[in-house]
């Protein structure tokens, strides 16, 4: 199970607002519900699942700004793929909270 931090940045949209892009990208995640878990944050999206599935979902997410007319898209991905034990978003947060 992997956890991925992903930010998709449409470039050259003519406006500094990207909320409509974020909303449409979120719809991609909703279509993949059951295959991945996700959390939308003010700065990025965190998704959890099997790495091959996550990479497929990220590619679908990356394509969204192009379908809305963007000519350039920058996608930042950070992967946490721990294989010595099961790691989930909830377990990572619980571990930190237990130490506070």
Automatic annotation (TrEMBL):
InterPro entries: MTH1187/YkoF-like, Thiamine_BP, UPF0045_domain. Belongs to the UPF0045 family. PANTHER family: UPF0045 PROTEIN ECM15 (PTHR33777). This is MTH1187 family thiamine-binding protein. Gene3D superfamilies: 3.30.70.930. Residues 4-97 form the Thiamine-binding protein domain. It comes from the Bacteria. Pfam families: Thiamine_BP (PF01910).
């Amino acid at each position: 199970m992997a956890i991925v931090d992903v930010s998709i940045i449409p470039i050259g949209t003519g406006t500094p607002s990207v909320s409509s892009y974020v909303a449409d990208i979120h719809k991609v995640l909703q279509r993949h519900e059951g295959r991945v878990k996700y959390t939308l944050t003010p700065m990025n999206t965190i998704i959890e699942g099997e790495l091959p599935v996550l990479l497929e979902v990220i590619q679908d997410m990356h394509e969204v700004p192009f379908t809305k007319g963007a000519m350039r898209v920058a996608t930042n991905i950070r992967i946490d793929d721990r294989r010595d034990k099961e790691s989930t978003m909830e377990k990572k947060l619980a571990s930190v909270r237990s130490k506070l």
